[in-house]
Amino acid sequence: MTLSLGNASCPHCGYVVDSTMGLDGSKVPNDGSVTVCFNCAKVSMFQQTAFGLRIRMLSEDEVGPVMGDAVVQRAVQALLEFRRTNPFPPTEQRL
């Protein structure tokens, strides 16, 4: 299942994220869900705001536990491998 996000953007590279799905391929994100940017492969977290779900950088306290998670590590490695074999130009679309 894929969730439309409107105009959320990666806090690391500014890539416009218009849809997402859970790391398990089925769940939709909620407050505290981890995401990996398709453009830069950096890990961020969803945060519920008054304006809906937004994507933010991990806090210092979150970096260790999140980056140490095996599912997150596999997702980052899979995306990096995909990008090595399927390059595309960096996005010019930024918020």
Describe the structure concisely for a colleague.
With 95 residues, the chain is of the alpha+beta class. It is built from two helices and five strands, in the order βββββαα. A three-stranded antiparallel sheet has the order 3-4-5.
Q: How does this structure look, described?
A:
- With 95 residues, the protein is of the alpha+beta class.
- 25% of the residues lie in helices and 29% in strands.
- The chain contains two helices and five strands.
- The protein has helices at residues 60-67, 70-85; strands spanning 3-9, 16-20, 34-36, 43-49, 52-57.
- The strands form two sheets. A three-stranded antiparallel β-sheet has the order 3-4-5. A two-stranded antiparallel sheet has the order 1-2.
- Strand 3 (34-36) and strand 4 (43-49) form a beta hairpin.
- It is globular.
Taken from the alpha-carbon principal axes, the silhouette is: globular
- Count of folded domains: 1
User: What's the main sheet like?
Assistant: 3 strands, antiparallel
Residue share in helix: 25-40%
Sequence stretches where pLDDT stays below 50 over 5 or more residues: none
Report the count of strand segments. 5
Q: Name the beta content range.
A: 25-35%
What structural class do helix, strand and pairing data support? alpha+beta
Query: Strand order, biggest sheet?
Result: 3-4-5
What string gives the helices and strands in order?
EEEEEHH
Q: Span between N and C termini?
A: 25 Å
Average pLDDT number:
83
The number of helical segments is 2
Rg, Å, rounded: 13 Å
